[in-house]
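Batch manifest line 149
LIGAND: zinc ion
JOB: complex structure
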Amino acid sequence: MNDELRDLYQQVILDHSRKPRNHGRLEGECVHVHGDNPSCGDEIDLYVKFDAEGKIEDLKFDGQGCAISQASASMMTSKIKGKSAADAATMREDFRRIVMGDGAPQDEDALGELQLLEGVQKFPQRVKCAMLAWRALEQATAENAAKQG
Ligand code: ZN
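JOB STATUS: finished
ARTIFACT:
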């Protein structure tokens, strides 16, 4: 990572962790899941409202933890809002590839600033922090699918 990119990475992470987007809880009917990352002490409560086709209409998160986990949750909720079930699944897989260094993403453009988190692949403990919100989203998606029958 060059210096310029490292500065940008730190700015974006700090900005999102200090002023998290979509912070709080959703009112009304939604899927609520709790996730944690005991190795770092990160916790997240994620609230997701899906439409009948599984599109993510709205989502919010609440929680506490390190800057990476909070920034990743903030960035995830910003990027995933309004996405269809298929697009959300692609982004989830692409984000996993980026932070784990596990192959090229299928759609880099859709990830946008989320790509800045690829630096965590050098720090296995940090991968769990970055993935926490996405694992919670995966769980919420599964629970929604089960509910739909
Ligand atoms: Zn953490």
